[in-house]
Write a structure and sequence with these properties.
The protein is of the alpha+beta class and about 290 residues long. The chain is about 25% helix and about 25% strand. The protein has two domains: about 10-120 and about 260-275, Alpha-Beta Plaits; about 125-260, 2-Layer Sandwich (Alpha-Beta Plaits), CATH 3.30.70. The longest helix has 13 residues, at about 35-50.
Length: about 290
């Protein structure tokens, strides 16, 4: 495996592209007493490279909550020269890592990358989908772990009209679980609702999402589609920037991360620096 430009110095960086069924995981982030996706990944890396007190510098594109799935997740990890020597650079492959994991996690690619690449901060876009089955759809027990079942009929045209209100650069404080030192300003680039015979798909694209944002937005759209929340009320909630009880944060099992987008290699470092800067309310156009 050749060494890419920018990988000089005290460590080498690797990118992993992977997917997982989040049903039986307590989310992405490592926790001392719970089974998590990162915990399983770190166990596998430890078997290959030995213990690392800094968790191999691992960082993920999107920290999914308990029960949330990923069809296209990305993380990076770093190796010291000693760790590389122990494993053998040519043997650092997706196939080898996969043998250390259960079938709930599937590795699609593992490649050495530049130090400029940061799985989280270099990303310029992420997309999610949320699957719903209402009274009018055909339900299957084989999809019950991945689709939210609701008892009533949902008006998807009304849901799309509500979705259009949310698209754009906004402070999504009404839809996010606040985190100290973090902003809730996000650019929601696309939000579409599509009905098929078997399900309703809510598809979202944004530069990034804050915690619970997608599941709260879906909960609000379900409330609108079920005629329990009006579109003007939704617009008022968005402008209020404060969490309310007018809709529920839906269950995690219907949610899946579907893609992560990155700029060209020469823009990775600049994007990472930009992403680390907090947005200000002045950026939002009135």
């Amino acid at each position: 495996m050749s060494k890419p430009a920018g990988s000089s110095g005290g460590f080498s960086r690797f990118r992993i592209d992977f997917s997982y069924d989040g049903t039986d995981f307590a989310g992405w982030a490592k926790q001392p007493t719970l089974r998590t996706v990162q915990g399983e990944m770190l166990k596998a890396l430890t078997k290959i490279f030995g213990e690392d007190k800094n968790d191999f510098g691992m960082r993920v594109a999107g920290r999914t909550d308990a029960g949330v799935h990923a069809l296209a997740q990305v993380c990076h990890f770093d190796l010291t020269p000693a760790q590389l020597k122990r494993a053998g650079r040519s043997k650092i492959t997706a196939k080898r890592l996969q043998t250390m994991l259960t079938q709930e996690i599937v590795i699609s690619n593992l490649v050495e990358v530049s130090h400029d690449f940061d799985a989280r901060f270099s990303a310029i876009g992420r997309s999610y989908r949320y699957l719903i089955a209402d009274r009018s759809t055909k339900k299957s027990p084989l999809t019950s772990r991945y689709v939210l079942w609701v008892l009533n009929d949902l008006d998807t045209e009304l849901m799309q009209s509500a979705a259009d209100v949310l698209v754009g650069l906004h402070d999504f404080g009404a839809f996010c679980k606040p985190r100290e030192g973090a902003t809730t300003i996000r650019e929601l680039r696309k939000l579409t609702i599509t009905r098929s015979e078997n399900q309703i798909e809510v598809y979202l694209e944004a530069d990034a999402f804050c915690r619970n944002q997608v599941r709260a937005i879906v909960g609000a759209l379900i409330a609108v589609g079920g005629k329990k929340l009006s579109i003007p009320e939704l617009a008022t909630i968005l402008k209020g920037k404060t969490r309310v009880s007018a809709f529920k944060v839906v269950a995690p099992h219907g949610l899946a991360l579907t893609s992560v987008e990155y700029p060209s290699d020469d823009q990775l470092a600049a994007q990472a620096e930009k992403a680390r800067r907090l947005r200000s309310p002045e950026e939002i156009s009135v």
